[in-house]
């Protein structure tokens, strides 16, 4: 009997998502067991395998995750709706507890509370070398709580450990080849993928999974103009948009005024690298409350602007993992809508989210200040649903008479929308805004404001899932209401840890950070950058340094990634299109067209490629909810995606091996 031909699979990009894919390959490896075919797994990445570039383990510990330790896992659980087998393992928090206990023996009580199955997975894998090379990581793990925000390096170490576990779990006989390189090309030759690496290697494989992360893109018109105005002029320093760990902030001189664009998560990382990262210290305030910043003298002076002009809101301090938001109206719509329905965000989703947020406000408020109500809570809830969203305040005015006791969504979405008479006045206003937000965060579940805002942050997953693939029209997906919701949901749901906001407040009070105002207009003139806000009188700032503390949104239609660009030119890949309300498919999304379960690329002819897959961030506009790390017990899109693509790739290997076996000539 002839032997089946060995087959091979190439995984391009081996960060945390890649580690999960390998774990799913191991879990589903029985799919090719019938052929008995040996196979090779090629792992391609020029960064640390498992951690990748973003989560690499050598980065400063000043950079922390935006996610809680107890809310991250790279293992499946019974809540994940997938076809593959569930193989549970420790969450990031549990892993930190197990590591700290193994090395110090001081967390035995917490270890006993971890499921024995997950403990057994931990026991079978060696710890990554970085934990011994950087003992400060162990120091961080020792007091770790479920609600802690671990450093990014800790998550990177966890991901490298998960990858090590996954590699050990692969069947005996699977050959793993690691390539410290970047893929520069993927093309089909006689129907099979050929992967070209920048090391000069060429890999001829039977299937390829692309887990590329955030894609480089072509310059926008604004970027190109900035480049033209500043190139070759030594007076300018422009730190271009990118992940903070990839930006060269050494170019930013101490003591210099710096214009910073962006007040989201990228800004907080930049802020830390330019202050505490340069030797500054945060100490308890003299009054025993808050923080005080002790400068090192190496800091620049940061003048910051963004569209709203204020920082992302701080996460609440619950003393544990956050409670599930009550999304009764949105969930009822999700559970009742037909799978084939075309949803309109403005009509079907936004009003329900707004009503759910109002209900969260009043349900919380009634337990805190019942005297604010002139009618029972049930009457207030009924009034919410008694008419259009635009008339909410009028319907509630007699039921909750004091305006400050009613939820003001417009003020929450545009907090700095007024006019300010001077930069000093605006700086003071933002400091008060930060202090008030920190107060609300400290209240935990006893803040009606945070309860309402948490609805918007929590609704993002449901919305993105409902609108995924062909769930809505092109106009609805690209509409202003949907874009505003995503931006606002990010501002209130993906904000920094409360301690980061406290550090920003200390820096503002120390004069290290100033706020230009909303919608800062940038100009280049007379050898300098200039920025000012139309909302703040006298806000003009001049500087020779500009730091863009944000990242461009991915967009396959303007990609600069060589692999994606070549696949697009060859017709093996196309942008995802949503149907227009008027009919047809006129508008291309920023995402890539893929099959829903298998993540196989769909070519320009509308036919799926059987052996090339794309997962993760480049398909977030298509699939939805692919950016954030997976949460346990949440049916994480990330884990459904990695299981589906692993099974599809293994199916390809099985079919190739079986076809080769059956086509062998018989000489009997």
From TrEMBL:
Superkingdom as given in the UniProt entry: Bacteria
Q: What Pfam families does its record include? A: NAD_binding_9 (PF13454)
What sequence ranges are listed for the domain FAD-dependent urate hydroxylase HpyO/Asp monooxygenase CreE-like FAD/NAD(P)-binding? 11-213
Q: What is this protein called?
A: FAD-dependent urate hydroxylase HpyO/Asp monooxygenase CreE-like FAD/NAD(P)-binding domain-containing protein
């Amino acid at each position: 009997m002839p032997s089946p031909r060995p087959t091979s699979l190439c995984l391009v990009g081996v960060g945390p998502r890649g580690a999960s894919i390998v774990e799913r390959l191991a879990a589903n490896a029985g799919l090719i067991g019938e052929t008995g075919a040996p196979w090779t797994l090629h792992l391609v990445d020029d960064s640390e395998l498992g951690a990748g570039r973003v989560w690499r383990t050598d980065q400063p510990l000043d950079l922390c995750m935006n996610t809680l330790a107890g809310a991250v896992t790279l293992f499946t659980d019974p809540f994940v709706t997938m076809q593959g087998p569930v193989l549970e393992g420790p969450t990031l928090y549990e892993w930190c507890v197990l590591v700290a206990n193994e090395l110090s023996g001081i967390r035995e009580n917490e270890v006993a509370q971890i499921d024995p199955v997950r403990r057994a997975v931990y026991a079978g894998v060696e710890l990554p070398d970085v934990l011994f090379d950087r003992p400060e990581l162990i120091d961080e793990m020792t007091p770790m709580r479920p609600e802690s925000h671990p450093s990014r390096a800790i998550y990177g170490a966890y991901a490298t450990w998960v990858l090590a576990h996954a590699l050990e779990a692969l069947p005996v006989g699977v050959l793993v080849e690691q390539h410290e390189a970047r893929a520069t090309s993927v093309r089909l030759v006689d129907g099979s993928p050929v992967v070209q690496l920048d090391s000069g290697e060429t890999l001829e494989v039977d299937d390829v999974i692309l887990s590329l992360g955030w894609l480089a893109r072509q310059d926008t018109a604004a970027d190109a103009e900035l480049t033209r105005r500043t190139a070759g002029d030594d007076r300018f320093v422009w730190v271009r948009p990118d992940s903070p760990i990839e930006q060269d902030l050494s170019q930013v001189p101490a003591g210099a005024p710096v214009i910073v664009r962006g007040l989201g998560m990228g800004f907080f990382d930049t802020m830390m690298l330019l202050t505490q990262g340069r030797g500054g210290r945060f100490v308890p305030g003299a009054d025993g409350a808050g923080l005080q910043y002790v400068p090192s003298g190496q800091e620049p002076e940061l003048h910051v602007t963004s569209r709203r002009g204020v920082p992302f809101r701080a996460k609440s301090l619950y003393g544990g993992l956050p409670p599930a938001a009550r999304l009764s109206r949105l969930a009822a719509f999700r559970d009742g809508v037909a799978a084939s329905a075309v949803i309109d965000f403005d009509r079907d989703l936004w009003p329900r989210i707004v009503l759910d947020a109002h209900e969260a406000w009043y349900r919380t408020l009634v337990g805190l200040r019942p005297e604010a109500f002139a009618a029972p809570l049930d009457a207030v809830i009924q009034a919410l649903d008694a008419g259009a969203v635009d008339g909410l305040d009028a319907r509630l005015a007699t039921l909750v008479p004091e305006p400050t006791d009613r939820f003001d969504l417009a003020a929450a979405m545009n907090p700095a929308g007024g006019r300010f008479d001077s930069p000093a006045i605006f700086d003071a206003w933002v400091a008060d805004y930060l202090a008030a937000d920190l107060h609300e965060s400290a209240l935990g579940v006893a803040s009606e404001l945070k309860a309402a805002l948490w609805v918007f942050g929590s609704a993002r997953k449901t919305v993105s899932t409902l609108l995924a693939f062909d769930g809505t029209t092109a106009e609805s997906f690209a509409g202003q209401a949907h874009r505003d919701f995503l931006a606002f949901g990010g501002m209130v749901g993906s904000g920094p840890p409360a301690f980061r906001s406290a550090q920003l407040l200390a820096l503002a009070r120390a004069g290290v950070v100033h706020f230009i105002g909303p919608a800062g207009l940038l100009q280049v003139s007379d050898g300098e950058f200039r920025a000012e806000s139309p909302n703040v009188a006298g806000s003009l700032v001049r500087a020779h340094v500009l730091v863009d503390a944000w990242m461009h949104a991915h967009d396959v239609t303007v990609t600069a990634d060589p692999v994606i660009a070549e696949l697009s030119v060859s017709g093996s890949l196309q942008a995802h299109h949503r149907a227009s309300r008027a009919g047809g498919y006129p508008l291309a999304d920023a995402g890539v067209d893929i099959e829903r379960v298998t993540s196989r690329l769909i070519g320009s002819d509308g036919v799926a490629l059987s052996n090339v897959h794309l997962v993760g961030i480049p398909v977030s506009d298509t699939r939805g909810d692919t950016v954030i790390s997976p949460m346990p017990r949440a049916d994480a899109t990330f884990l459904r995606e990695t299981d589906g693509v692993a099974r599809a790739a293994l199916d390809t290997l099985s079919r190739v091996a079986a076809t080769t076996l059956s086509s062998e000539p018989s000489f009997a």
